[in-house]
Every structure is written in C-alpha cells, then in structure tokens.
Amino acid sequence: AQKRSPAPLPPGPKGWPIIGNVLDMPTTKPWLVFTKWGERWGHIIYLNLLGQPMVVLNSANMAVEMLDKKSSIYSDRPIFTMAGELAGWGSLIAFLHYGDSFREARRLLHQVMGTKKSMEVFMPMVEHQTHRFLNRVLSHPDNVQELIRWTAGAIILNLAYGYEVKEDNDEMVALVDKAMQQFSIITRPNAFLVDAFPMLRHVPSWFPGANFKRLATEYKKTLTDMVTLPFVYTKRQVAAGAAQPSFVSTHLENNQLTKEQEATIQRAAAALYTGGSDTTVSSIYTFFLAMCLYPEVQKNAQEEIDAVVGTDRLPSPADRERLPYIGALVKEVYRWHPVGPLGLPHRLMENDVHDGYFIPKGTIIIANIWNILHDENSYKNPMVFDPERFLSAPGKSPEQDPRTFSFGFGRRSCPGLNLAEASVFMSCAMVLSVFSITKAMNADGSVVTPSAEFEDGTVSHPKPFRCSIKPRSSKAEALIRSAE
Ligand code: HEM
C-alpha cells in the first residue's frame, strides 16, 4: 500500500503532470504574483517544480511560526547547482548548508558586528564616509545612485579589509559591483529553480536558465577575484605593518592561522561585502525616491533634525536615540520597498506538519516579505510612505516593526543588521539635515514625477529616476564643505 502522508499538502495551483508548476512560475516581480496567488490559495501555497516541493509563505504569522519558531529545522538553504556549484558561490555563507562551516562563519561575523556595541569602533569610519558622500552629492547631484553605491562599497571594504577606496575609478569597488550584479542575476527565483533541477541543464537556450550555463564560467572568475584580491591586499598590509584595523587584519594579526582557517576568514570577509554592498544601496536609493514623492514627510523629518541637532553641525551616530521621527522614517524605508522582497530561500531539513499541512523534508521555503510588509491588516494604506505609522500617539499604538521581517528569519536572519542600520540611519539623517530633495524639472518647466517602480532581482532596487538635490541653505552648503 502507498505510504500516506500524515496530513494534506498545502493548497496551490494544480500544475501539469511531471513538470508540475514550472510553467506557472513568474518571471517578473514574483512577489506580486505570489501575493495574487495568496488571495486565491491563502497564507501558505504549495508548488511542485518537477518533483521539487516549494512553499510560499504569504503571512507574517506563517513566516514567524515556521521560520523563526522552528528555526532548528527550517534553516538550511537549497542546492543552487548553477550559482552555488558552477559559478562558485556555494562556499559563501548565504549558500552554505546548515552545519559546522555555517556556524563557524556566522560566529566570525557575529564577533565583528553582532551587536550595536561591537559596531561602535566602526562608527567614526561610517560617519567619515557619509561626510564624503555629502560632498560628492553636492558636486554631482545627478549621480546619486552611483554615489550611494560608491559609499556603501567604501564602508564595507574599509570594515572588512581596511581598504581605503580611491576618489575615482576604484578597481576594488568596480570588482565588488560586478560580482554583486552577477549575484543578483544568478539568484533570481527562476534562475535558482532551474538550477535546482540538473536535468534542466539540457533544455534549449530559449528556456530561462539556459543562459546561466554560459555565464557560469565568467561569473566564477569574477567571484574568485572578489574573494582573493582584497584579502591579498590586507595580508600584504599586515606583513608590512601598515594595516588599518579591519575584520581581516584583526584575525591575521592575532592568530597563527592554518590554511583552512585563513580560507574561512577569506570567505567570511567576502560574505560581509556581498551581503553589505548592494542591500544598503537599495535602501538609501529608496529613501531618496520616497523623499522626492513625499515632501510632507521630508519637511517633518527636517523639522525634527533642526530642533534636536540644530543647523550648526551635522547629525552624528550619538543623535540616533533622540531622533524618533528619523527612526520611524528608516523603518518605513525598509517596509515600503523591502530590499529583498522574497528574502533568501530556506530549506526544510526534516518532515514537518504545520497548521494541519504536511511539509516534506527538502521543501524550499520562500517568505513573501513584500506581501507581509504590505498586508492591510498590519499596515494601514500600505502603498503610502508614512513614518507616522511607527510612532505611538494617544489612542494609537505603532504598527509592527518591519525589521522583524525585512532582515529575514531564524538562524538565517541577516547578520549585517547592525551595520545596515548604522549606514542607512547616518545617510538619511545627514542628507535630510543639509539637502532638499524635490521633483526634477524638464527643460520646458514641467515637473517630472518618478513612477516608484522597482527592478527585479534577489536584491531589488528602485528603477533609476530623476530628482533635484540642492543644499537647504548656504549655511548647509558650508557645513557640507567643512565635513570630511
Ligand atoms: C538594508 C540592508 C539589509 C537588508 C534589508 C538585509 C536583508 C537580508 C535578508 C532578508 C537576508 C536573508 C535572511 C534569511 O534567509 O531569512 C539576509 C541575509 C544575509 N545578509 Fe543581509 N541585509 C541587509 C544588509 C546586510 C549587510 C550590511 C550585510 C553585511 C555586512 C549583510 C549580510 C548578510 C549575509 C552574510 C546574509 C546571509 C546569512 C545566512 O545565510 O546565514 N546584510 N539579509
């Protein structure tokens, strides 16, 4: 007799024999498609992709109950044949299977940035790099996205390797960017789904995914450079006694390392900047978009800064606790457009029965973070950018903190949270204190309203948009110029 499952599978689109739901899989904005499916199938949706079970979680409650509360069994990652094995990303933390190497890498990261306290030593550097950012924006206001990227790269390369980024055309930043663009492409949902099924390697080239086969070799070379070149730089600096304090130099200076330990540190450092370079970029660019579209919010934020910090100096990390509206604004940035709308996929390590449904071992679990953060039951008028939702007022309690979801779940939740928080807060507060962000104008005087569209990708960015960025006053301009 056939062995019976202890409970029914969760509901979901029916699919076809053998291939299951492969043809149902969205190729663009999957978070919106999964949200729509949620209206029909509910909070938990089951998909079968050529026999590979996959579950999409569409509610906060499901994601927390499964991925957070049952973290000991929901913390593996899927096998990414293309990205992980062929393109070489498999040895970096985000792809590691749940086990000893994973725990060791998380421990190393936690030591450096696991708490707000551990971040303190890096705050002067974050502040300094953000000052440089202000100066660059003043000179090139039309290049803001590129400047955000440059700054994020500078912060993370400094923290990981003690590497001071050059003003222009820095080859290390270019390398990180290239690798991250490739990372984003290769981990798109339809990419990794195809990757999960080696038999799809044989499909014709029009099939999404086949393209990745050709690209894998090229991507692997970029990745190898990204993991080794900055590490070699720090090693040389340490040998010459000239190293700036950093994640890598601290480990190299304090210990006599075996080859294997060295490799672990090399990969943990690479994880720092793979996780940290692109993500905060999306958040800070989203911030500029929101400020352009919501002038009232910008005005409120500037009033708070003027009242608390004044106009004689720039905000500093020490002001964070005293700027609740800016704190709420940063939360709203994370909510309004989550950097990772589907987070990263988890994989179930043993059979589970949840909420009356059978979830087989090996199921890939996707949390629809975008939908969770736009659920009308938790967030009123979810498409509107409104920091007030996170402030308490008489008779009104704040809405749920989006960081519970936007940084992922359980033992896989983002290890870079404290750095992200520090970087995003500093950028928002400093920019608001000295710049005014408004809609751009065409040559004929008509106003350009950005469309607030977001790109596909594991890390999703706002579509490039135009806005006008000017100093708030001549005093603000002088303040920017005096900062370094
Ligand atoms: C706004 C900024 C950021 C957001 C929204 C964000 C969000 C996330 C999310 C959703 C995940 C997946 C968690 C899961 O699987 O459940 C993740 C993982 C990760 N993040 Fe971040 N992140 C941010 C910044 C950073 C920074 C600055 C770093 C590095 C310093 C970083 C390093 C990582 C790493 C290494 C992982 C993989 C963790 C693992 O697989 O165990 N992230 N992040």
From TrEMBL:
Keywords: Heme, Iron, Metal-binding, Monooxygenase, Oxidoreductase, Signal
SUPFAM superfamilies reported for this sequence: Cytochrome P450
Domain of life of the organism encoding this protein: Eukaryota
Residues involved in heme binding: 414
Required cofactor names: heme
Metabolic or biological pathway, per its Swiss-Prot or TrEMBL entry: Secondary metabolite biosynthesis
GO molecular function annotation: heme binding; iron ion binding; monooxygenase activity; oxidoreductase activity, acting on paired donors, with incorporation or reduction of molecular oxygen
InterPro entries noted in UniProt: Cyt_P450, Cyt_P450_CS, Cyt_P450_E_grp-I, Cyt_P450_sf, Cytochrome_P450_fung
Matches recorded under CDD domains: CYP64-like
A matching Pfam family: p450
Family membership: Belongs to the cytochrome P450 family.
UniProt protein name: Cytochrome P450
